[in-house]
Structure formats: C-alpha cells, structure tokens
From TrEMBL:
Keywords: DNA-binding, Phosphoprotein, Transcription, Transcription regulation, Two-component regulatory system. The modification 4-aspartylphosphate is found at D53. Residues 146-244 bind DNA. InterPro entries: CheY-like_superfamily, OmpR/PhoB-type_DNA-bd, Sig_transdc_resp-reg_C-effctor, Sig_transdc_resp-reg_receiver, WalR-like, WH-like_DNA-bd_sf. It comes from Streptomyces natalensis ATCC 27448. GO terms for cellular component: cytosol; protein-DNA complex. Residues 146-244 form the OmpR/PhoB-type domain. Residues 4-118 form the Response regulatory domain. It is found in: Cytoplasm. GO terms for molecular function: phosphorelay response regulator activity; transcription cis-regulatory region binding. This is Transcriptional regulator.
Amino acid sequence: MTHLVLLAEDDRPIRTALERALTLEGYRVIAVADGIQALAAAHRERPDVILLDVMMPGIDGLQVCQVLRAEADRTPVLMLTARVETADRIAGLDAGADDYVVKPFEVEEVFARLRALLRRTAPVAGDGGAEGDRDGEGQQDATADAGVVEAADLRIDGPSRRAWRGDRELELTRTEFELLELLARNAGIVLDHSTIYDRIWGYDFGPGSKNLAVYVGYLRRKVDVPGSRPLIHTVRGVGYVLRED
C-alpha cells in the first residue's frame, strides 16, 4: 500500500526537497504552502499522515492541528519546527501533534518518524471478524482482559486506548498513551533509552536527542499531578521506570 502524505511547508526549497525525497521513498505526496491549503487538502484528500510546519503565514501549524483534532480527525501529525525550547515543543503536543522533528533535520530521521506513526495506525491482521465471534463469550472476555494493564492506581485499556489514574481519566496523545502503556506493562523494570525509542518510535535517535525527555516530562504533567504519589521515575544515565516509591 502506498501511503499518502500531506506536506505543509511555506519555505519553498524545504518543501520541494521534502516532496522529492518522499516521492523517491515511495510515498504519494500532496504539497501545500500554508495552513489554509493544508486544512482544505486534509478535508478533501484524507491523507494517511500529515507533515506540518509550525510557522506558516495566516493559519500556522499549531492552529491547523487544533482544528483537525477538534473535528475528531485522528490523522497522525508530525510537526516540523525551528523552535528548540521545550515549551514550544509542548505547545505542539498540546495542539494534538503526535511527534515532532527540529530543523535542520536529516531526511532519514523524518522517514523514521513517519514509519513509526504509520505503524501505529496500521490495522492489526486478524482483528475482529465473524470467526472471532464464534470463539465464544469466554474467549472474548479473556482477550479483553489481556488488553487491560494495571499498575499502582493506573488502569490502561489497550483496545480502547483509554487510561485512568484512580477515578480520573487521562487525556493522552497517541505517543503519550503508548509510552505510558509500555512503562506500565514493565512496572518496576528500568527501561533504557534505546529500548523505549525502539519500542515507541522504531528508531534510536541517539544520546543527543531530547525527544524522549520531553515526552516523559509532558506525561508526568498528566499522570503525576500535585498531591498524588509520583509513578514515573528517572534513573539517571539509564532510562525510566514506572513504580510506587
């Protein structure tokens, strides 16, 4: 299957270079120069993934993402940003983006992040179907139970992609959910950076990348709210672990 990428980038040389590189990589590409065109193309073409520059004239990338999410459009969004501050990256995640890459970037990193986003949205082979319905009620219940992870006062329902801490439901992006689920499934086990990168993004971005630290920090804001026992801990020089102290 050839995936359709919507590329919105107002810098013509970058847009042209990315469009050419994506095409050579085997993607179908719709390239536009601003946020208004991006929204129109997203509504008209239904892309598989959106590559969205943050700073564009008129409607910027953050606003485009906010509009799509308000419309319940869950198309994966990879943000392109020249802003390197953590607060700026968090703003993109707040807007509903699934991942980001900082300019200047290597095109291979863009490809790796796109592949990871597309893997997450790919249908699981053998999901559902009449044959599964004939397996009986007991087996369906066992399958449903297998999709639920509980750690401390966290409860994560994998099939519905919902999570709770106590009675409070957590509002998580796709990447945040997968990171929390990975940590919860391995509660008490320290996961190193390389393992997390490989499991969540399918690619190790190296020791210089701040990507994981930003996501962990943002996840803590939602999970470890003031007044609650912290669950997500940093093991310096190694990685992260979910556990009760």
